[in-house]
Design goal:
Family: Belongs to the nuclear hormone receptor family.
InterPro entries: C.elegans_Orphan_NR (IPR051152), HNF4-like_DBD (IPR049636), NHR-like_dom_sf (IPR035500), Nucl_hrmn_rcpt_lig-bd (IPR000536), Znf_hrmn_rcpt (IPR001628), Znf_NHR/GATA (IPR013088)
Structural class: mainly alpha
Strand content: under 5%
CATH superfamily of the largest domain: Retinoid X Receptor
Shape: globular
Keywords: DNA-binding, Metal-binding, Nucleus, Receptor, Transcription, Transcription regulation, Zinc, Zinc-finger
Distance between the termini: 69 Å
CATH topology of the largest domain: Retinoid X Receptor
Order of helices and strands: HEEHHHHHHEEHHHHEEEHHHHH
Number of strands: 7
Pfam family, one: Hormone_recep
Number of domains: 2
GO molecular function, one term: zinc ion binding
């Protein structure tokens, strides 16, 4: 009966879950895109929530739909949403504007989608960045906050960035939506990325690892400051969440950049770009660390390669099926951040992140609409499957601790081992 309703009738109907304006029929029910996206994430990521058992918060409506996510999901089921149409893993290639699948491209081909997206990002108004005072502020910030750290507690360094209030996402980036702000920060993080003159250095030592991780973590902290949700939670929660998720987001971002530059060669030749100027080849890696026994070096290197190979097979390989734009990468990082550490988020954090998640979902929809991609659901599904793989690897190697130097948030511990 629902399927026979006209588009005009659907357009004038409220969402059956929260009462907001409906956008269409999703999973068999007239609903808004936010509730449809929530239902999809809940099923695909196999999430579980405990009911708040609060009569006020458990009453799901447009104002309280993000309060009790257990009751929101139960209401989705009650109104008739079905999991039959939720697709988990699917061989998805880039679709054209009419939703047709083009011929599979080779590793040498260059997609026009990424070119279009870069142009879209550059067209976003950013008049404040042309202001000399803001440019001067950025130069001072980079000189004092983003320089390479040596023998400095990274936690303190990152907290300094969180407390800096830079950039001013309300004034400097006021013309951008939530997702565009994160994409803008991602563009800045990648601004110095080498494409041709990348140095392959397969030597692992504290001399190059410690400053590398210090630099990477502080740059990621700067990226986090472009997120509205991150800036609207308590400073203690900022440090706690960042400490748990930054390594995973670093891996995901670098793997996507590796695919962007090397294409399918990164899978065949086991290459990973680890920063803007350096890459490694897994089969040629060796450790050069004094004070560690040969057996421990062998074990550490074996573990390093074990998870690095998984990253290539389970993350880089499916990323090759997509030619992700900067906006899409920003969306993937945001969702990965919020759901890769689901059990670490408290009740004082989840309302903010839920609002942010709904908003960037709307931003992504508007982005696809602006570039003429109609059938984008398969792309989002594949992105979600990549996030699931990333989460699995993250937990399998104990939150990243086997692949990274111990005590990365305390550089002095690393340098004295």
């Amino acid at each position: 009966m629902i399927l026979n309703e006209t588009k005009d009738e659907i357009k004038n109907c409220p969402c059956k879950v929260c009462g907001n304006k409906a956008h269409g029929i999703h999973f068999g029910v007239i609903s808004c895109r936010a509730c449809a996206a929530f239902f999809r994430r809940f099923i695909v990521l196999n999430l579980e929530y405990v009911c708040l058992k609060d009569p006020e918060k458990c009453d799901v409506d447009i104002n309280r739909r993000n309060s009790c996510r257990h009751c929101r999901f139960q209401k989705c089921l009650t109104v008739g949403m079905t999991t039959d149409n939720v697709q988990f893993n699917r061989d998805v290639y880039l679709y054209d504007k009419e939703g047709r699948k083009p011929k599979k491209k080779t590793s040498k081909s260059t997609s026009s989608c990424s070119v279009e997206v870069i142009e879209v990002i550059e067209e976003v108004p950013s008049t404040s960045l042309q202001n000399m005072e803001v440019v001067l502020q950025e130069n001072v910030y980079r000189a004092t906050v983003l320089e390479e750290c040596k023998n400095i507690d990274i936690r303190v360094k990152c907290e300094k960035i969180f407390q800096s209030g830079y950039p001013n996402i309300y004034e400097d980036l006021g013309n951008m939506n939530f997702l565009e702000k994160v994409a803008f920060g991602l563009e800045k993080l990648r601004a110095d990325q080498e494409v041709i003159d990348i140095n392959f250095d397969n030597r692992l030592s504290y001399d190059n690892l410690v400053p590398h991780w210090a630099s990477v973590s502080t740059k990621l902290a700067n990226l986090f400051m472009h997120s509205w949700a991150f800036r609207n939670i308590h400073p203690y929660e900022q440090t706690r969440i960042f400490r748990y998720v930054w390594k995973t987001l670093y891996r995901l971002e670098r793997l996507q950049m590796t695919v962007k530059i090397f294409g399918e060669k990164c899978v065949d030749e086991k290459k990973i770009i680890i920063n803007c100027k350096r890459a490694i080849q897994l089969d040629a890696l060796f450790m050069d660390i004094e004070g560690i026994s040969r057996e421990k070096k062998k074990f550490t290197l074996t573990e390093y390669k074990k998870y690095a190979h998984r990253l290539i097979d389970e993350i880089a390989k499916p990323l090759c099926k997509l030619d992700l734009s900067t906006i899409e990468v920003a969306y993937m990082l945001c969702i990965c951040c919020q759901y890769n550490e689901e059990y670490f988020f408290g009740n004082n954090v989840t309302p903010v992140t839920d609002v942010f998640q709904d908003q960037i979902g709307e931003n992504l929809h508007e982005y696809y609409k602006s570039i003429g991609i109609i059938n984008y659901a398969p792309r989002v599904k594949l992105i979600m499957s990549i996030i699931i793989n990333m989460k699995r690897i993250h937990y399998d190697d104990f939150l990243g601790n086997l692949v990274y130097p111990p005590g990365i948030f305390d550089i002095e511990k690393c340098t004295h081992q």
